[in-house]
Every structure is written in structure tokens, then in C-alpha cells.
Amino acid sequence: MSNSARQDYSHFTDEELMKLFQNGINEAFNELVIRYQKVLYYRFILNIKIKQDCEDLIQDTFLCVSRSKDNYLSNLKFSPWLYAIAGNLLINHYRKKNQLITTCLTNEPADKQLLADISLHQANLLITTRKAIAKLAPKFSRLLQLRVIDEYSYNEIRDITGLPIGTIKSRIGRGKIRLRESLKMYKKEY
């Protein structure tokens, strides 16, 4: 098939592209990569600051999407599913780096560049916040995850959950109060 006869997938929604990919049309997956690689890069670079690690995480994210394509439910929005995968990979990345730093701080040979590039405080804060959110009641934790961690707008959360915006705002507000209390307790422990 020549380039001029290739299907243009740019007009399809993300959800339609994922459905096509589930049906074996790999070009649909390529369109998703084109749409989201820059977004993922900027999300990762804000957190980890190391270009190569960001590129590796992007590749791992799309690899997970490809491997998990049959787990995607086409009646749900694609982007929250993608961002959940990316967020989990980011947490795993922080955990691995945290283990490396712990090893370095216990008199093992240290990579000074690694220590300079990694914000241990930022990694621990993200992990702690995620743990605290996960301990909240599900009606609060899911919405806080979408708003605070995944940075979705209220309209996007409405589309994902089907809840009215007033309910979403109310639960997020009450969830933030509970989260603050939980994080205060964590602060007292350390």
C-alpha cells in the first residue's frame, strides 16, 4: 500500500482508535502514540527531570498499553486509562530510584549524577500522597486520584465517572479535608 493510499486515523477519537487496535489495526495504535507521546513526556519531565528516563517511561507506557489492549473497555475514556498506566510506571520508577539512593546512602558506591538528578523528597511525597489517597473511602479516593494525581478537569471526571459535577466537587472537597488530616498524621510520624 502506498503512502497516499494509507488510512488517515487523525479524525478518529482515542476510544475508536483503541477499538481498532484491539481488532488488529496497528496503525490506530501508532496514531495514539503520536497523540500522547508529547503529553506523557511533559508529565514525566516535570516529575523526574531526566530526559532518558522520561523517554524510557514513555516507551514502557505504550508497551503496557499494547500488552494490555484487551483489558481496555471501549465504553470508557482512553486517556484516564493511559494516565493510570503512566502514573503506576512513574511510581515504580520512583521506588526503584529510592532503592538505589538507599543503597548509595549505605556506603555502597554512589553515582553522584543520579543523586543530583533525583528528587527523593518529591518521589516520597508522591508515593505518600498516593498511599494516603488509597486509604480513603472509595467514593473519595477515586475522585481525588483523578483530580489531584491525574490532573483531570471536573468535566473530564464527570465524563469518566458519570457523576454530576456538584457531587464531584463536594466529594473532592471532603476528600481533600480527609487527605490533609491523613498527611498531617504522616508528618507527625516522621
Would you write up a description of this structure?
Helices cover 76% and strands 0% of the residues. The model is unreliable at 100-119 (pLDDT under 50). It is an all-alpha fold. It has 9 helices and no strands. It has helices spanning 14-22, 26-48, 51-67, 78-105, 112-117, 120-135, 138-149, 154-161, 165-189. The protein starts with 13 loop residues before the first helix and ends with a helix.
What is the topology?
Layout: H1 14-22, H2 26-48, H3 51-67, H4 78-105, H5 112-117, H6 120-135, H7 138-149, H8 154-161, H9 165-189
Concise synopsis of the structure shown:
With 190 residues, the chain is mainly α.
DSSP summary: helix tally: 9
Radius of gyration: 19 Å
Order of helices and strands: HHHHHHHHH
Q: Per DSSP, what share of the residues sits in E-state strands of 2 or more residues?
A: under 5%
The main β sheet shows up as: none
Secondary structure: number of strands? 0
First-last Cα distance = 62 Å
Q: Mean pLDDT, rounded to whole units?
A: 79
The general outline is globular
Helix content: over 70%
Q: Quickly give the structural class.
A: mainly alpha
Low-confidence stretches: 100-119
